[in-house]
Design goal:
The complex is a heterodimer of chains A (about 100) and B (about 450). Chain A is about 20% helix and about 25% strand. By secondary structure, chain A is an alpha+beta fold. Chain A has one domain (about 5-95): Gyrase A, domain 2. In chain A, strands 1, 2, 3, 4 and 5 form a 5-stranded antiparallel sheet that branches. In chain A, strand 2 and strand 3 (about 15-25) form a beta hairpin. Chain B has 2 domains: about 5-120 and about 145-310 and about 425-440, no CATH class; about 310-425, Alpha-Beta Plaits, CATH 3.30.70. Chain B has helices at about 20-25, 40-50, 60-75, 90-105, 150-155, 170-180, 190-200, 255-260, 330-345, 385-400, 400-405; strands at about 5-10, 30-35, 80, 110-115, 140-145, 160-165, 230-235, 240-245, 270, 275-290, 290-300, 305-325, 355, 375-385, 410-425, 435-440. An 11-stranded mixed sheet of chain B has the order 9-10-11-8-7-1-2-3-6-4-16, sandwiched between helices. In chain B, strands 5, 12, 13, 14 and 15 form a 5-stranded antiparallel sheet that branches. Chain B is an alpha+beta fold and about 450 residues long. In chain B, strand 1, helix 1 and strand 2 (about 30-35) form a beta-alpha-beta unit. Classes of the chains: A alpha+beta (about 100), B alpha+beta (about 450). Chain B: It holds the Pfam family AtuA. Chain B: This is DUF1446 domain-containing protein. Chain B: It comes from Emticicia agri.
Chain lengths: ~100, ~450
């Protein structure tokens, strides 16, 4: 199953760093996401997009994960040659991941 | 001192819709309206306009926004705080006074500035992103420090009804009225953290009411054509209820609030603003009714000893060309076109980028999806130091009409100057926020 079926996400940017939240629709899925969607597995899934380190933050109070991805925006919003310079569409790249 | 204030956010970026702010001012029962109109690069572009005309350099939509809002601000006794001053808050304040006089309205306007550090920042200062002197990035055009609440607080104490700033950290626009109305002290860092959380949730306006959120399959949102922008009832203990005006489109719920809390956060344990290093991991969110989310928790520790400075520089000229193919073998023909362009342009443009829109252009991969799209659009992009050189990219794509694969149509070509942004830090001692009051 794709993450899209059980979780939602919002992408954000700061310079060349991409942030991706991962929020289960049902909060009881949070522990499962914590064990299945690690920094390493996301790094592997997004290998074509993110060339730097990925740090995962856990936010149990709101049952959400946050992935902070370095070197992910081809130089960043102001100087990238890509179409989506902000990487705003990349939340749905994370949701393509199979779990 | 008040026990509760209502703060609305009527714009989340410079080009945002005009009418949600009008709805908030008309029907929102607001104490404060905030318009956040300054993205990272906006101020560098505004600085270019100011250099061409010293009476400009404020937000290009300022006149339209103020003309429609001013009568409502007066009628409903709402104070407006906005960073629409961009590169020239004083000129922005004078323009507001001019509009007020034309409307026959008495109003006090404060310009908050001191963020422009271009003249006292050495071009040899190291850029955080590159580790090299700023000037090596390109010709520098602007340098603005992210100020905190101080200047806005002085303006609130001076009873200005409209406060127009240059670069101020977005959450500070919201935190300042809380400090002012509740008598919080600036070194109560837990309260600074709570107020910053509330500001962060509101600052992108439509983001927390269902914009940049809706998905008709999984997250349907009603009436997005009349999306309401949010307001918060903020209480003196730093908790708040986020909501929106009844009858507007959109939704405020646990999901929209969670997405926005984590938006653009690079470390939720330490969210840096000039006012506080806030901890977002201690926040609790709870739905308390239809379109109502209660925000509690949120903490903070100390404030940074430095201000972040955004430095704008002339990066390069971007040239782009696009052409479309449809029907059988659309992708194959687009790929042939891409190969032709690559052979002709790659020697001159080593960074040349070739995208197949409809296949793998947006995510820069398609995760191995081999299905054949019915339509595909080739997009070519490259950069150079002058406009004439990059114009070749669009011209070469256009020439595919008669020299390229069958059925290529809909060419568009673009040349744009690109302003880049790098950042650095500056000691707080070196910056003194200033205010100037104008009366209509």
């Amino acid at each position: 199953m794709k993450l899209y079926e059980i979780a939602h996400s919002r992408a954000g940017d700061k310079g060349n760093t991409l942030t991706l939240s991962l929020i289960p629709y049902d909060e009881s899925d949070y522990p499962m996401l914590c064990s299945a969607v690690t920094a390493d597995s996301v790094k592997q899934h997004l290998s074509a997009i993110v060339s730097g380190e990925i740090i995962r933050y856990e936010l149990p109070n709101i049952a959400s994960l946050l992935f902070v991805c370095q070197h992910a925006l081809l130089g960043g919003v102001t100087t990238s040659l890509a179409i989506d310079t902000h990487g705003k569409a990349l939340s749905y790249a994370l949701l393509e991941m199979e779990v | 001192m008040k026990q509760k204030i209502r703060i609305g956010c009527g714009a989340g970026f410079s080009g945002d819709r005009l009418e949600p702010a009008i709805v908030l001012a008309e029907k929102g029962n607001l104490d404060y309206l905030i318009l956040e109109c300054l993205a990272e690069r906006t101020i560098a572009l505004a600085q270019k306009r100011r250099l061409q005309d010293p009476t400009k350099g404020y937000d290009p939509l300022l006149e339209r926004r103020i003309e429609s809002l001013l009568p409502l601000l007066i009628k409903n006794n709402i104070r407006l705080i906005t960073n629409m001053g961009a590169a020239n808050p004083v000129a922005g304040a004078k323009k507001i006074i001019e509009i007020a006089r034309k409307q026959g309205v008495i109003v006090s306007v404060a310009a908050v500035y001191g963020d422009d550090v271009f003249t006292h920042l050495s071009p040899d200062t190291e850029a955080i992103e590159t580790g090299k002197p700023l000037q090596q990035s390109g010709e520098l055009i602007s340098a603005n420090a992210y100020l905190g609440v101080e200047g806005i607080l002085s303006a609130l104490q001076a009873d200005a009804q409209i406060i127009i700033t240059g670069r101020v950290a977005d959450p500070s626009l919201f935190l300042a009225p809380m400090i002012h109305e509740f008598g919080w002290t600036n070194n109560d860092y837990d309260l600074m953290g709570k107020g910053t959380v509330i500001g962060h949730l509101l600052e992108c306006a439509g983001h927390i009411t269902g914009g940049y959120f809706a998905d008709p399959v999984k997250k349907p949102v009603a009436d997005m054509d009349k999306l309401g922008h949010p307001f918060a009832d903020v209480f003196e203990d730093g908790s708040a209820i986020i909501s929106k005006v009844e009858g507007t489109g959109g939704v405020v719920n646990l999901q929209t609030a969670k997405e926005q809390l984590l938006y653009e956060v690079i470390n939720p344990h330490e969210y840096y603003t000039p006012d506080v290093i806030a901890d977002f991991t201690t926040v609790f969110l709870k739905e308390t009714g239809e379109n109502q989310v209660l925000v509690t928790g949120g903490t903070g520790k100390t404030k940074p000893q430095t201000y972040k400075v955004s430095v704008g520089y002339k990066a390069f000229y971007l040239g782009e060309g696009e052409i479309a193919y449809a029907g059988a073998s659309a992708l194959a023909r687009a790929q042939l076109a891409g190969e032709i362009i690559e052979k002709r342009l790659k020697p001159q443009f080593p960074d040349l980028r070739i995208d197949y829109i409809g296949s793998n252009a947006i995510h820069r991969t398609n995760f191995g999806d081999t299905s054949t799209p019915y339509e595909i659009r080739l997009r070519v992009a490259g950069k150079a130091t002058n406009a004439a050189d990059v114009a070749i990219i669009g011209e070469e794509v256009e020439a595919l009409y008669t020299n390229g694969p069958a059925g290529g149509g809909g060419v568009r070509k673009y040349v744009n100057e690109v302003i880049g942004i790098v950042s650095t830090l500056i000691d707080r001692q070196n910056i003194q926020p200033q205010i100037q009051i104008f009366e209509s």
